[in-house]
Every structure is written in structure tokens, then in C-alpha cells.
Amino acid sequence: MKKAVSDRMEVVQGDITKMEVDAVVNAANTSLLGGGGVDGAIHRAAGPELLAECKSIGGCPTGEARITKGYNLPAKYVIHTVGPVYGGRPQDSTLLASCYKNSLQLAVDHKVKTIAFPAISCGVYGYPVEEACRIAVDTAAGFLEEHPSIEKVYFVQFSEENRQVYENYLKQIS
Ligand code: ADP
Prior knowledge:
about 170 residues, alpha/beta, Leucine Aminopeptidase, subunit E, domain 1, 6-stranded mixed β-sheet, 6 strands, binds adenosine-5'-diphosphate
């Protein structure tokens, strides 16, 4: 991979709601009406105005993304994307890659320079993290090559195990 691209991706261990970036990505569900996991954490930290804006959007199909303001978060925007529920089907990887691509495209459209992703689909949606990590990093790397306006993509991992998986893969390809 081109050095410039690997320098623009970083793994962080922690809580995505604390990230001081232009946009954080939410692993939402199709209703966009909030849920558990990272979705619940983002809604709690952003405050009730986020849910009100999400209600006005009226849902989001799997693989697509929608943008809202960040309200009480340090991030200016929340990009809500809906990952696939893992079922071992060929379309799972296509849909997961679409989540990353569509989120990054919305970021470019809104002049976002720094963006933080959680491990989309790797919680209750059951995606194996090694596989999801490769899709996340490969898709982001491909996008960054084509879009110099994005300065940094952070992959925020809640757990030490996931952080290790991401760090190993990033080292392997850079
Ligand atoms: P999904 O329904 O897409 O699987 P989850 O929210 O259940 O989404 O989990 C996605 C990933 O986000 C999991 O790896 C989970 O550990 C992680 N996660 C949960 N809360 C946070 C948080 N506050 N910051 C960053 N990652 C989080």
C-alpha cells in the first residue's frame, strides 16, 4: 500500500463518543431509532436532539448511510450506517464494504477531514472481526487513494482483542 494511505489510517482503543473528529460513524439499525451497543452510547452522549433528527429521516436500508448533526458530541456530525447481520452469505461482505464506502462518500460531501469508525456489525450483528477488519481497512484504503480531502480515518475499537486484530492487519499491509 502507498505510504501516504497507511499514514492516514489509525487504530485507537476506546470509546468512540469521546473522539474529537469531524464525524463519528454509528453502527445503527434500519429504523435509525437507536439501539444498544455503540448506537446506544452515541445517542446517550449526543442527547435527545439526535433521536429527533433521526426520526425525521425515516430509516436507512442495510449498506447505506445517512448524516446528522453531532449535537452534544465533540464530533460535528454523526454518520449512521447499517451493517449486515452476519449470516456467512456472499452479500454480507459487499454490504459491509458499502457501509464504509457510503459513509466515506457522505464525509467527503460534507467536507469532513477526520472520521472515526466503530467495528460495524462486529457486536450483536455477529460479523467475525478478522474478516470485518480486512473489509474495513481495504475499503477505506481504496477510498483514501481516490479522495485526498480525507486526512485521517480512525478505527475505534472497544476491546483489546479487536485493537490487536486491526493493528496486525494494518502492519501487514503497510
Ligand atoms: P452491530 O449491531 O453493528 O454489531 P454493536 O454496537 O453491537 O453494532 O457493536 C459494534 C462494535 O462496536 C462492537 O465491536 C462493540 O464492542 C463496539 N462498541 C460498543 N460500544 C462502543 C463505543 N462506545 N465505542 C466504540 N466501540 C463500541
